[in-house]
UniProtKB/TrEMBL annotation:
Sequence similarity: Belongs to the FMO family.
Name this polypeptide is given: Flavin-containing monooxygenase
Keywords: FAD, Flavoprotein, Monooxygenase, NADP, Oxidoreductase
One of the Pfam families matching this protein, by short name: FMO-like
Single Gene Ontology MF annotation: flavin adenine dinucleotide binding
Cofactor: FAD
InterPro entries, per the entry: FAD/NAD-bd_sf (IPR036188), Flavin_mOase (IPR000960), Flavin_mOase-like (IPR020946), FMO-like (IPR050346)
Origin species: Hibiscus trionum
Enzyme Commission number: 1.-.-.-
Matching SUPFAM superfamilies: FAD/NAD(P)-binding domain
Length: 440
C-alpha cells in the first residue's frame, strides 16, 4: 500500500460504489456524496417523471433514473458481475432470469454496498453543487454540497479534499432530436427518460425516434396497444426488430419536419398524422457542479481532454471520472477504471507525464477524424472494448480475463440480433458459455 489521501466520490451508483470500494482497499479515506436516499443510481426506479417531458427546462427538478417499469437488463447477469463478486441466480430468489428485471439489478448493487461496508461511507441526501480546485500548489479541492432542510430551504456545507472522483452517471440529461417544426408541433413529445409505461398510448399514433435498445423495448411494449407506431431510424440499412411481424408498425428514415396541424413528414416521403413523439435519442454529459476554469469541457458530447476516458491530464490524478464510457459492458469496465484510479492515487501505478497523456488524447482524436468517427462517439467503446479493457488490465497487472472477449457488448448485441426481439427469453446464455468454455 502507498500514499493515503482524503478522497471525495460524487455519486453512489455502480461507478461510485466500485470506486469507494477500491479506494478503501488502497487505504484512502473516502466520503461518498449521494443526492438520493439510496444506492444504485439509475437502477433506483421511480414512477415520478420530470415536469418537462422533453427535459429542456433548465429549472426543472431533475429525476435521475431513466428506467421504465418493465425494464429488464439487456445484458446477461454474467456480464454485470464484478471480478470477485458474482451476480448469481439466487436459490428461491424472486427473479431467476438470466436477463434480470431492474429490481434484481438494484438488489445486487445494494448487496454489494452492504457486503463491502460501503453504506457507512455515504452521505445520502447530499447534492454536490460545486467542485473546485482551491489550491493549485497543494491540489486541494473544495466540495460544496447541499441538503434539504424543508420544502423550500437548503443547508449547504463545504469540505476540503485532496482528490475528487466524479461518478455522476451519463444517462439522465436527455439529448433530443432536432427537426424543423419541433417547437411548434402541437402533440405530446417526450424523451424516453420520462417514459415509464405505455399507459395513455392506447389507440394513439406514435412516432419513436431511435434504434437503440430503449427504442426496441418501447416498440415491443407500445405496439400491441397503439393504433400505429412509426419508427424513425437514422442508421442506413438497420432493420428494426419488431417491424416485420407487426401490421401496425412501420420503419422510416429520419423526420424531415413537423407541422402545426400535427403531421410529421419523414425523409422517405411518408406523412403521418401523429399524436405522440417519443425521442429515444440518448443522453448528454452534464457536470453543472464542476468549476474547472475551462480545463474540462463538454463539446458535442466529447468530454475533453480525458486520458483514457478517466484523467484530465493537467489535473491528474487529483480529479478523475469513472463511468464516462458507454456502449460497453459498463459494470466490468468501470470496475477496472475504479481500481486504476485508486492505485494511481496511492502511487502503486504510475501515470505518464502530463504532456504524454495530452498527446495520447490528441492521437485518439486524430484517429477518430481519420476514420470518420463523429465526436459524439468519443467515449463509445463499441468497437474497441477488448483493446481498452486489456490496456486497463495490463496497468493493473490483471491477466486477460476468461470470457472477456465473448462478453463484450458487440458479441452480446450480435447474440441479441440473432435471437430476435425476444432474445432475453430465447437465448440460452448458459449453454452459449459452456460452448465457449469447451472450445478453449
Ligand atoms: C434505460 C437504461 C437501461 C440500461 N440497461 C443496462 C443494462 O441492462 N446493463 C448495463 O450494464 N447497463 C445498462 N444501462 C447503463 C447504466 O447507465 C449503467 O449500467 C450504470 O447504471 C451507470 O452507473 P453510474 O454509477 O455511472 O451512473 P448512475 O447509475 O447514473 O449513478 C450516478 C449517481 O450519482 C448521483 N449524483 C448525480 N449527480 C449528483 C450530485 N450533483 N451530487 C450527488 N450525487 C449525484 C445520482 O443520484 C446517482 O446515484 C442502462 C441505462 C439506461 C438508461
Amino acid at each position: 500500500m502507498g500514499e493515503s489521501y482524503k478522497v471525495a466520490v460524487i455519486g453512489a451508483g455502480i461507478a461510485g460504489l466500485l470506486t469507494a470500494r477500491e479506494l478503501q482497499r488502497q487505504g484512502h479515506h473516502v466520503t461518498v456524496f449521494e443526492k438520493a436516499s439510496k444506492v444504485g443510481g439509475i437502477w433506483v426506479y421511480t414512477q415520478r417523471v420530470e415536469t418537462d417531458p422533453l427535459g429542456l427546462d433548465p429549472n426543472r427538478e431533475i429525476i435521475h433514473s431513466s428506467l421504465y417499469k418493465s425494464l429488464r437488463a439487456n445484458l446477461p447477469r454474467q456480464a454485470m458481475e464484478f471480478l470477485d463478486y458474482p451476480f448469481p441466480k439466487k436459490q428461491g430468489g424472486d427473479d431467476q432470469r438470466t436477463f434480470p428485471g431492474h429490481e434484481e439489478v438494484l438488489r445486487f448493487l445494494q448487496d454489494f454496498a452492504r457486503d463491502f461496508g460501503l453504506m457507512e461511507l455515504i452521505q445520502f441526501g447530499h447534492e454536490v453543487i460545486r467542485v473546485e480546485l482551491v489550491d493549485e500548489v497543494t491540489h486541494e479541492w473544495v466540495v460544496e454540497s447541499r441538503t434539504r432542510e424543508n420544502e423550500s430551504t437548503w443547508e449547504s456545507k463545504e469540505e476540503l479534499f485532496k482528490a475528487v472522483v466524479i461518478c455522476t452517471g451519463n444517462q439522465s440529461e436527455p439529448n433530443i432530436a432536432e427537426f424543423p417544426g419541433r417547437d411548434t408541433w402541437p402533440g405530446l413529445q417526450m424523451h424516453s427518460h420520462n417514459y415509464r409505461s405505455p399507459e395513455g398510448l392506447e389507440n394513439k399514433i406514435v412516432v419513436l425516434i431511435g434504434n437503440g435498445p430503449t427504442a426496441v423495448d418501447l416498440l415491443r411494449e407500445i405496439s400491441p396497444l397503439a393504433k400505429q407506431v412509426h419508427v424513425a431510424v437514422r442508421t442506413p440499412g438497420f432493420q428494426m426488430p419488431g417491424v416485420e411481424n407487426n401490421d401496425n408498425v412501420w420503419q422510416h428514415s429520419m423526420i424531415e419536419c413537423a407541422h402545426t396541424d400535427g403531421k410529421v413528414v419523414f425523409q422517405d416521403g411518408a406523412i403521418v398524422d401523429t399524436d405522440v413523439i417519443i425521442h429515444c435519442t440518448g443522453y448528454k454529459y452534464h457536470f453543472p457542479f464542476l468549476k474547472s476554469n475551462g480545463i474540462v469541457t463538454v463539446d458535442d458530447n466529447r468530454v475533453g481532454l480525458m486520458y483514457k476516458h478517466v484523467f484530465p491530464p493537467s489535473l491528474a490524478p487529483w480529479l478523475s471520472f469513472v463511468g464516462l464510457i458507454n456502449r460497453s459492458v459498463v459494470f466490468r469496465v468501470m470496475e477496472l477504471q475504479a481500481r486504476w484510479v485508486a492505485k494511481v492515487l496511492s502511487g502503486t501505478v504510475e501515470l505518464p507525464s502530463q504532456e504524454a497523456m495530452a498527446s495520447s488524447v490528441e492521437e485518439l482524436y486524430s484517429e477518430m477524424e481519420k476514420n470518420g468517427i463523429p465526436k459524439n462517439l468519443t467515449h463509445s467503446l463499441l468497437n474497441n472494448e477488448v483493446e481498452y479493457v486489456s490496456w486497463l488490465a495490463a496497468q493493473l497487472n490483471i491477466k486477460p480475463l476468461k470470457r472477456w472477449k465473448e462478453l463484450t457488448v458487440v458479441s452480446i448485441i450480435g447474440g441479441g440480433v440473432h435471437y430476435g426481439e425476444n432474445f432475453r427469453d430465447t437465448w440460452d446464455i448458459d449453454k452459449w458459455m459452456q460452448e465457449i468454455d469447451s472450445s478453449d
